[in-house]
Fold:
Amino acid sequence: MKKLILDGNVVAQEMKEDLKGRVESLKRNGVTPCLATILVGNDPSSETYVKMKGNACKRIGMKSIRVHLPEETTTEELLVKIEKLNNDPFVHGILLQHPVPSHIDERKAFETIAIEKDVDGVTSAGYGQTALGFGEYPSCTPAAIMKIIEFYGIEVEGKHAVVVGRSPILGKPVSALLLNENATVTTCHSKTTNLAEILKQADIVVAAVGKPNFIQGDWIKEGAVVLDAGYNKGNIGDIDYNACYEKASAITPVPGGVGPVTIATLLKQTVESAERDMRDRNRVPQFRQA
Amino acid sequence: MKKLILDGNVVAQEMKEDLKGRVESLKRNGVTPCLATILVGNDPSSETYVKMKGNACKRIGMKSIRVHLPEETTTEELLVKIEKLNNDPFVHGILLQHPVPSHIDERKAFETIAIEKDVDGVTSAGYGQTALGFGEYPSCTPAAIMKIIEFYGIEVEGKHAVVVGRSPILGKPVSALLLNENATVTTCHSKTTNLAEILKQADIVVAAVGKPNFIQGDWIKEGAVVLDAGYNKGNIGDIDYNACYEKASAITPVPGGVGPVTIATLLKQTVESAERDMRDRNRVPQFRQA
Structure:
């Protein structure tokens, strides 16, 4: 059986090439797509992620604004900042880098992001729309997984997809997206008592646990498609790659799998928000523009 | 093994007794909980459902308003009506009886209901909150199923729950609620290729298909808990009751299973909305009430 390496860099490259043209076209129309990132505190890996995202914006001609707030920022202060970005007509997307310091009400902060700027897909309203099948901006990692599946022509309908993890931005939305594509979906988590037994039935495995090398090779059915959404310290995924590689018909590496597509998805959704913004402006009748 | 009949009438009765006291207390404070039902067109079973819900309100001392719109009502006209109820301070809950006539954009109508009055749990925003674990008003039938499970002390954590159906108000939210109670959840549907095989693994089965007697006895594992959310013509559920009864350790009958608890849940959520309304009024500083 031919083994397929699901190369996220190839997918992301194609997406970014497409986006470059769209950004140029927006700029010709006077709109520069802009992503605002908010970082609270000084977690070094969060700083790295935010920097990476800002750089990715620049490389395709987008603007990015970095808001860096001190560790001791209160929830209220953060909400004020988010509201300001919600009301800033030059900002098309808002990304609050998580985790935020533990004294901050992260959910409240997420919920404050205006849904039309929630390009990272963190609000419950956005999640609800995604799950019911009409969301504009799903969470980026789940959307990236679906993009890889689509790019490589992997069949989803009627397949049994098993998602390991149930976080609001990963396990839950990827389960919802797979279900909407007509997979039979099982969502497993820390309280699942027979994980190996369930995984062995999976045609499609999505690992979204946050535990390095957690998914074992002998839990995987011969020929399964294995997608690793894990990003643990030292660039290690949630699956035991070498062991799962032997079993899988297709597999994402870490790094170079889901990660680059996630960032490309963030850019894409910000560009889409800018495109909507432009369409909305053009819809304003002339006499109101005086 | 002792067979447990999950008697929805007993559960609903207890809920309604509790609600009667809460309604009285609200009325003593000048607030009469009020549910507005909207019926578009003349579908006889929809008329019956709406009437049942109105009568259920009255029996526990609540008010209900019936809005009956003609078959030819447009989406726009319906939205105007919903907005009016959103802004009516005496209305605590809004129920749009579905299905609406096919020329109406049902989703748009649902989405127009203000989330604080969405006691029937039909908005995507409400669904998102429910799925992420902090929803005020889940869809009534899923909430009823969880209530029955709680009432009869059925263990959910670590169990494998299989939900058959994925509608926005039934299959999807009940999957989400079971997941939040730490079940491992599989959602099956019309594209599932190996339904019997998956159902045979289920500790908890929720049938939400809308096909009379669809779930067969030999698809059920010995000792499973079987919950039938189906309501098909002639008061027939989605499970083949007699055959499933033999296998199940606990089972809901149809009628008298999930149905009565669904209506009690609708009442409960409307009363909760009224209670929130009263708390909010009391929170207004005195000088602003002049």
